[in-house]
Write a structure and sequence with these properties.
single chain; alpha/beta; seven-stranded mixed sheet; two-stranded antiparallel sheet; 9 strands; globular
Amino acid sequence: MVEIKYKGACVSLAGDVYEPAEDSYLLADAAIHYVKEDMRVLEIGTGTGFVSSVLLANVDVELTSTDINPHAVICARSNGIEVIRTDMFNGLKAISCFDIIIFNAPYLPTSRDEKIPGWLNYAFDGGSDGREAVERFLDGVCEYLVPDGVILLLVSSLTGIEHVSSGIRSMGFDVDIVGRDKCSFEELVVLMGKRRT
């Protein structure tokens, strides 16, 4: 079994689950920088539990994680992460209780013939424009944030960084880029959306 060690966390990989890559590391770094002690944190789409594990290894928080992929849920639980198997927010009560919500969205523009068979498709498939999961996330996120809550959302230049930023601003958030990494064919960024109070 393959293990990844990063910033005090050790995560084992198993099954039909997205292996942490540049996007995962970028989001984990942003999370440990912006999440503060005793915050109530929600990670949507935890996968192996990598970001949650790194966060818990560095900051004392109350953490809830979700994933739709049953293989990811098993993998994350084996890495010590408590996970609710659900699609986005569907398995959660709609109460404004999280200080920060983290999401490494599936952001690759994906046509029908590019879909990957099985559960792993959920980790990559961002719909035809790469924003399908991002838009679903943004449609539901406000119900789960405290009034001055924050989102950390990883997106790619393939998804349209400014388009997503504009959408977040239109919801009453201030938006900043708090992490950035240029890869061979794209730029990855972590957008931090802070609710205006």
